Amino acid sequence: MARRDGPCADLDAAAAGRSWQASRRALLTGAAALAAIPAFAAKAPPPPKTANIRWPGPGHDLHGYMAIPPKAHGPQAAVMVVHDVRGADAFTRSLCDQLAAAGFVACAPTRLASLEEAVATVHWLASNAYATGKVAAIGLGWGASLVERVAASPQPQLSAAVTFSADRIADLPIPVLRLPSVAQFQGDAYNQAWLQALAFLKDHLA
User: Fold this and answer.
1) Helices 90-101/13-36 angle, 10° precision
2) Which alpha helices (H) appear in 67-141, and where do they start and end?
3) Alpha carbon separation from 130 to 57, 104, 125, 138, 176 (Å, rounded)
4) CB 141, CB 23: distance < 8 Å
5) How far is Cα 50 from Cα 41, in angstroms, rounded to an integer?
6) How many CB atoms within 10 Å of residue 152?
């Protein structure tokens, strides 16, 4: 989907690109480490159910990736994963898979261009047949700022948020776990932060 100008399009593309490259390397390293954790098990867990989907946005359809827990019995809480400046990639989708393995319905929009699109996605997840109505959001870099703007908006319908970024908005009306930009993580620090994020989401979406 082509990128549209909107309230979230005001960033320095060159600086954002450098930050994204460093963040992506750190995230992919962390994802590989997490994937190796269950390698010793006799039987690997079943993969989540995944699909490329679309949903109604503000005057147009939005597109993205959804992952559902493989053995879900009834609706589950939902998590929106918001990409960094260049849009959703394989790692963003892998986060959805990990969230589904942890028991959440997860959705990663392909490319959000405005606050209105992000809010529309949250509202859609809150009414989705697979979800309980409780929705959280995870934001990466540029997406973290957008997630905080959603949380600060009137009637955000978010129960909690996790942000990986140095930017923040004070006095948000929902619980927020603010973690450093992923480019700042070294060694196993990202894995520990991800486990902290999962525990936070489970606590506030229960």
Assistant:
1) 40
2) 90-101, 115-126
3) 19, 10, 9, 19, 24
4) yes
5) 23
6) 16
Q: pTM higher than 0.85, yes or no?
A: no
Q: Coil, strand or helix: which one is 5? A: coil
Residue 94 CB neighbours (<10 A)? 20
Angstrom distance (rounded) from CA 21 to CA 32: 17
Q: Which of 6, 22, 2 is nearest to 63 (CA)?
A: 2
d(CA 83, CA 97): 15
- 40: number of Cβ within 10 Å: 6
Residue of 78, 64, 80 whose CA lies nearest to 128 = 78
Segment 147-157 mean pLDDT:
87
Q: What angle do CA 90, 80, 139 make, to 5 degrees?
A: 75
Query: What are the pLDDT digits (tens) for 59-90?
Result: 999 999 999 998 766 789 999 999 999 899 99
Tell me, what's the pLDDT at 72? 67
- What amino acid is encoded at 26 in this protein? A
If you ran DSSP here, which 8-state letter would residue 39 be given?
A: G
Residue 55 has pLDDT above 70, yes or no: yes
CB 81 within 8 A of CB 105: no
